[in-house]
Amino acid sequence: MSPRPLEAVLRFAYVNGYTCNEWAEPTRQCLGEKDDRKMTNELCELLLSRFFAQTRVSEPLLERYIAYAITGNEDHAQFDADDCLIPPTTFLTCIVKYIETTAIQNPRQWSHILKCLPTVLSVVDADQIVSDLLNEKQNEWPRILCDIFTMLSRLVAVGLFRDHYAKDNGKDASSTMMAIDNDFATQSQTLNNTQPGESSLPFNFTMSQPSAFDPDATIDLAGFAEEPISTEAIGSMDGHSAHDSTQSTTTDRERIESSNAVKAAQIIVDLIEKKSAKRIFEMMNNQRQQQCQDGTEKHEARHSEEPWATCQAILAVPSSQASSADMSQNTHIQKLLLMINRLTDRDLDRRMAVHIKYQELEDEGTARALPSAGLMGYLYHMVQIRPGLSDECIIDCLSKLQTIKGAFDEAFYLEIWFAALTGLREASTGLYKAKGLAEKDGQQQQDETDFSKLDMITATNFLLWRTIVLVKIPYIIKKLQDHKGGDDTKTYMKRQDSSVEGLELNSLESSLAELYSFAGLLNGCSSPMASFEFFTTNTPTKLMDKINFSGTNTAEDDEDDFMKLINDMGSSLDLNTVAVAKAIKGVGNEEVFATIVRVCHDYGFVRDHVADALLKNITSIKQEDNDQGFDIDMVDLDGSDTKQHHKSGDVEVLTKNVEDRMIAIKENISRTAISELLHIGLVSMIHTRRIIDFIIELLVEKAEARDIFSLARICDALNKSSSIIDVIGQLYHPVAILGPLEDLCNNWKPADSEMELDGRSGFDSPSDEDTDGVQVLYGKYGKIWTLVIFVLNKFNLYANVGSVFKETNGFCYQFFTEGPIIYGFDVTDQSMEEFIRQWQTALLGNDGVSDDLLRYSTPQQLLQAAPTLLHRTVLVYENGQLEANALLGIISYFQEKFLSFTLFPGIISVLGGDVLARNPSIAIMCLHQLLMSGNPPDMLLQICGTSILGALISLSEQRTQERMVAGIPPNDMNKNEMEGQLNVLQQYIKTNLGIEEKNEQRQHHTETISTGVTCDNLSQKAQDMFRYIVKSGRSMFMRDVDADIVALWDASKAPKQVITHYLDMVMFQTALEMGGPHWFVDMIVNEVLEAGKSGGAVRAAELGSCLITTPLTRSLDTGGTCTDLLRCLLQDVVPSSLKKHAATNASFFQGQTLGVFTGDCLVLMYDRGDPAEREFVQEFGRQFFETLVVDSESAPQIIHVKHDTEVDNHGTIGVLPSWSDMVIESPIWRGFLKGLMSNPLINESWPNTFI
């Protein structure tokens, strides 16, 4: 029997002392004969079996062969894919099989394997693995990494619990070593008597008879080599020559095992921190859980796939032995054990989202968590409340807040970053939560639609937080620096404790350098934007096809794509190359800190060499090798890639592509081109503001030119990508979109653009093929009008139309202030009556609406007349003069592309009123036709779905009560039929809007984006939220707060993916609107006083003043404006609270907390808003301070010059409080005055208030 080729080559090369290259050449020929995985597996098994056959001897040449085979270099310095003989996946799959039998017997061999292992694992690409998992592609790396963690944990355990594992092999460590030494002496003597023809090598040269090889024997290479082999050729890998195993002692063996344990621990830590192993396993579990059908399977899947629990069990201290004292004190071992314990703590992620960093305060010895509660309030308001604050208001508030806090620029900018990253961390936590599928086949498609809607909401929330961190905050910091008027960007200081040591940094750069050290938080915010489908339009584009299918080519394809990109760089014909698609994915998946640095560098306040220094070692973490212990803050669980500095090329490619797209769009506007550009803006935050500015400028340009065709294409692209509307509304006021369109919506008529019909190039969309003539123009106007309605509805601008439309006599202003009007037959405007009669005749006739009628009508007239047309058509049907099919035909006619824009809000509002007020059966029939039959407009449910649902639910409740009062039996056929129609419509709307309703709360609906909040518990939840934000993450004495954080939102019971934030400004907004200003202010003051007694005073004052002075409602009629809340605070709640708590002998510190809170409210409201509001606040504050002048030694001396000033537009100031002797003599009063005086801006805003 002839030996196998690979074994024969290895035996011959080993005996003759061939170098690695000399051995590799014939080995490649053998592999080339059968270039499959079977041959590489055979080679790997051959090398490892011979390698681990030696238990006491170091084999330098065999070590070199193994290193060359798995890394491509005999010194294993770097990985060379071209020269290596065994793929990394094959080697890692084979090596894990040897751990159980060789971990104790072969420490020297494992020492060499551990030296090569980091080089082999360097090929792990976390981004590619995650992308494959998201795209449901096969990838064996998660399984291999799971086995590697188990293998390495076993090696660490051997070093920690040496005696325990030796006993498991049948003897303790000392007896094992003695037996091995005794056996070795005998075997060595036998080897010396071996005949020349016999073999003592680890290869069976005489294949015809069984091998007599002794694994503990030494090797006499000189007996087989033709000439002596130099010691250099067989030198060991670590520089030590091979030595006889008789020189080995127990101490040497223990030293090697300890060294192996430390090396294995380092490799595990590197896999977690630098190779994003945690993120890989989380993504794998999420993908697996999507296929599970019940909670038990989800639980089992999670614990069966992640290796953390297995590693923890392996590293647990055995009951029979304690760990080695020397090993347990090793820094790397400590870090590993801490990581494993934290990774097995399932509730840690939610707790760590807010408990970020602690900073000691000077006063009262309290502790405050970064970020501050006030900054969190402002930044969360920017994301959650619409429309958002203006940039001027944000800059003013932040500037005052920094002065109040007395913070240096570097510390204050760092707190801003922390506040924004906290929200992003919370948003990214829920982005990839598992989604279940229904068990019943009949419900599967419905549930999938439901989940997709909910996923879109969650993804949009994540997108808005990314925009805040990567677009808005750098812009705000730049504006804040400009607002100060200083030249701080040219004031530098050296830092000695960062990755940019030795560089002189300004405050902006220094804040980034400090932020860089919080690797755990940053990596937790670096969720990949691999779910590109969340932000795509309804119509597929070539760019999306390239993005979805890029990454499947080989390395040669990548090079070809790059060469094509270089060749086509000057061409604008193909802007969607594969290289561009890969650049988009690369930029979208970049770590959040790298993107922050690039954006700040683009703004110009981070210099080139500082940006390079920050990006160079973006994932490096300082190792604490001193004797001061282990720094827990340096632990990085989520990890990140070490190749971020290579992604600058992606940014350059994408920047050039964006510029080319803008040029192409200016030359020829198309909806597809605009949609692709908008999609790039959603993924690449470096280009977001540039792209949005370009779209707004293009919108203004085409609106001024009254180019309705180009405007329709732009508006249609914006309608199809609702996420970009959210981003635009976050960066600018919605007026930026609506303002340019106001004049065209007011005054455009078909005659203005009819001449352009013949010159237009093709159809903008397939739906245009169904229209011709003037109908096309009405369809174009309809797309523009749809965008106007969509923006008004999304940002809730109906409450203050005057801030949006400037022409008070224009159509838009009149239409939205008056609302849908139904004209009677006695209408005074005869032209409108004639218009209605002509359209009614056309609709009731058989020929439909003619081009002549459309030509001599205007869309504005049609929008005004549409409610009346529907109302009169229903009257004709009620009188029996129109068949039901004819009525439904007229309703369907309004679904046509050129008339669909009249449905919202006019026709839908009339039908909603009819559901409750007139004839619900007809209204429901019409709604069923509009929503569930024919071809309903894409935006109909998105704009009007909630209002229709509200009317239907109200009707259901009304009919239920009528049945109960009238005693109508439940089995009444007419009633049940009506309820069936109602239920069908309600379920259809809920399914398409992603609205979930619990069985026990049929009449209650979620009012905010937080889970478990209904109208029954809204006030209590709002109060609990305030308290938890104040106290969470404060100090070691407040850990009892943590126990109820999860129960507060009850997220574990939520059956679907939800948005959960620790601070929900929408909840406070809803609580203000439902509870009223007095209850809202009183709740805040009570919590502030409670914090002054039990802890959290600074945070309570910051959060309370933010809620009072930040606009939560835009309506001027609800009494919830900031000036109304300030008036309620100073005239009512503060005086009554001081009187109440003075009677109970409240503490000085409670009064001081209330004074700080009151002073912050006054200062933050000062010199803000329109002139009337500024005058009111200034006069109101002055008169309030005058009331504090009392004849008491404990009171400060206050200017009390009287003025009889009344402020216009706000009425009189009103009656200000007076203070009784009981209040003035109480400790809480003295504390209240001290708290007011502590604000440094009081005397600046109201000069000479405190002397």
From TrEMBL:
Q: Which UniProt keywords apply?
A: Activator, Nucleus, Transcription, Transcription regulation
**GO annotations under biological process?**
regulation of transcription by RNA polymerase II
What residue spans carry the region label Disordered? 233-259
Which subcellular locations apply to this protein?
Nucleus
Instruction: Give the record's GO CC terms.
Output: mediator complex
Indicate where this protein is primarily found. nucleus
- UniProt function note: Component of the Mediator complex, a coactivator involved in the regulated transcription of nearly all RNA polymerase II-dependent genes. Mediator functions as a bridge to convey information from gene-specific regulatory proteins to the basal RNA polymerase II transcription machinery. Mediator is recruited to promoters by direct interactions with regulatory proteins and serves as a scaffold for the assembly of a functional preinitiation complex with RNA polymerase II and the general transcription factors.
| Subunit text | Component of the Mediator complex.
Entry similarity comment: Belongs to the Mediator complex subunit 5 family.
Q: What is this protein called?
A: Mediator of RNA polymerase II transcription subunit 5
